[in-house]
Amino acid sequence: MGTLKVKPSVTYCGPVQQPAVDLASLSLEALTTFFTSLGEKPFRARQVYKWLHQRGATSFDEMTDLSKALRERLSSTAVVRTVTKDLEQRSVDGTIKYRFQTHDGRMIESVYMPSPDRKTLCVSTQVGCAMGCRFCATATLGLVRHLAPSEIVAQVHAVNKEVRRNEGLETLRPITNLVFMGMGEPLHNFENVKAALALLESEEGPNFSARHITVSTVGLVPMIERFALETDVKLAISLNASNDETRSEIMPVNKKWKIADLMDAVKRFPVKQGRRVTFEYVLMNGVNDTDDDAHRLAALLKDVPAKVNLIQYNVNPGLGFDSTEDNRAERFRKILESQEVAAFIRANRGRDIAAACGQLANVDKRPSPAP
After folding, report:
1. What is the pLDDT of residue 325?
2. pLDDT digits (tens, 9 = 90+) for 49-72
3. Are 323 and 312 in contact (CB under 8 A)?
4. Confidence at residue 124, expressed as pLDDT on a 0 to 100 scale
5. DSSP 135-158
6. 16, 22 in Cβ contact below 8 A?
7. Amino acid 7: pLDDT
8. Element (H, E) at 371
9. Letter string b/e over residues 184-205, b meaning 16 or more CB atoms within 10 A of that residue's CB
10. Does the domain spanning 84-353 belong to CATH 3.20.20.70?
11. CB contact set of 32 (below 8 Å; sequence gap of 6+)
């Protein structure tokens, strides 16, 4: 029998294309290195950085102090990763929820909450969430992907522009406070969140004060230490139960790191420059809102310099939880206060447009028209 000779197949794919550099995710130092690699003067990096992070530019064409040749060159080697407004919903209480589309067609939400003394933006850090908290609408989406630093920061730039236009303001950065409490678990996307924080706090960028930024976590214990060491912003812990049995039932993360583990990590958190830890406690009727729960919570926080934000549950249809009534919430607060725990009932904003805590799930919910 003759030998079967197989001619090897050769597929020519042409030059390997390098992915375009996401300039809006780069620090000023990294951006300088990038421009130096192009043979450009280092000062170009500072020009582009300010366009991106002070003025919120979304294209190279906007960067009018760059030559046309340089803008064309940048367009062929780099991108400005941003987000595009897909939907805007306005609440009766002044809250505005923005739904943004990413470059790959994913949807995320940000919530703008103006008040007389501050303008706060709640930003998302992931598309969906992997933590599986049973009472949270975002958890029903599962985790689709992490957001890049540019996509986190782009929410801030986009809403800054919206606020300037809607409120007739001239300042480049009308937003005063940031809370990382939108879609996703920030510490699950820690490296990108850390990079985004550095961009937001940079003097050549938005120049947010660390005292005006709060990052929330469900309690990824190993990451809390890194968060303390590698950032300088405030920490909020989503606690929501006073014992392991209840917390494990509503928050799967507690099956891996118990409340004792979480409290040990919190007690090691450096209380400096106003970095007092905030505990968020969502009150759910008949689940975690009894007098015994309040006394156990007070005991847990006895030696912790912290405050508690009590949040009456924002009902998500189909999840099976109800909100605690006003009088019960106030009794819970008074028990904590009697045990010298600073506790406040936080106003729920944007409920009518599914923009309140735990309701972000890309739902197009508009108020019903007046009769």
Report:
1. 97
2. 999 999 999 999 999 999 999 999
3. yes
4. 98
5. T-TGGGG-EEEEPPHHHHHHHHHH
6. no
7. 43
8. none
9. bbbbbbbebbbbbbbbbbbeeb
10. yes
11. 42, 45, 46
Q: Using CA atoms, how far apart are residues 196 and 190, in angstroms rounded to an integer? A: 10
Task: Determine the residue type at 188.
Answer: H
What does DSSP say about strands 234-238 and 107-115: parallel, antiparallel, or unpaired? unpaired
Q: Where are the alpha helices (DSSP H) in the chain?
A: 28-37, 43-53, 68-77, 149-167, 190-201, 221-230, 244-250, 259-267, 291-300, 326-338
Quote the pLDDT of residue 370: 38
Which stretches in the chain have pLDDT values below 70?
1-19, 271-275, 363-371
The set of catalytic residues is 109, 357
pLDDT at 274: 58
Q: Whole-prediction pTM value?
A: 0.91
* DSSP letter for each residue of 263-278: HHHHHTS---TT--EE
What is the dotted CATH code of the domain comprising 21-79? 1.10.150.530
354 Cβ contact list (under 8 Å, min separation 6): 97, 137, 360, 361, 363, 365
Length of the chain: 371
DSSP per-residue string spanning 31-58: HHHHHHHTT--THHHHHHHHHHHTS---
Long-range contacts of 193-198, Cβ-Cβ distance < 8 Å, separation of 24 or more: 193/125, 193/149, 193/152, 194/230, 194/231, 195/25, 195/27, 195/149, 196/125, 196/149, 196/152, 196/153, 197/231, 197/233, 198/27
Q: At residue 292, what is the residue type?
A: D
In 3D space, the residue among 126, 332, 325, 135 whose CA is nearest the CA of residue 238 turns out to be 135
Rg (CA), the chain: 24
What 206-209 contacts at long range (C-beta under 8 Å, 24+ apart), as own/partner pairs, is 206/53, 206/54, 206/156, 206/160, 206/173, 207/173, 208/173, 208/178
Per-domain residue ranges of the chain: 21-79, 84-353
Specify the pLDDT at position 12: 41
Which residue reads 């809390």 in tokens?
224
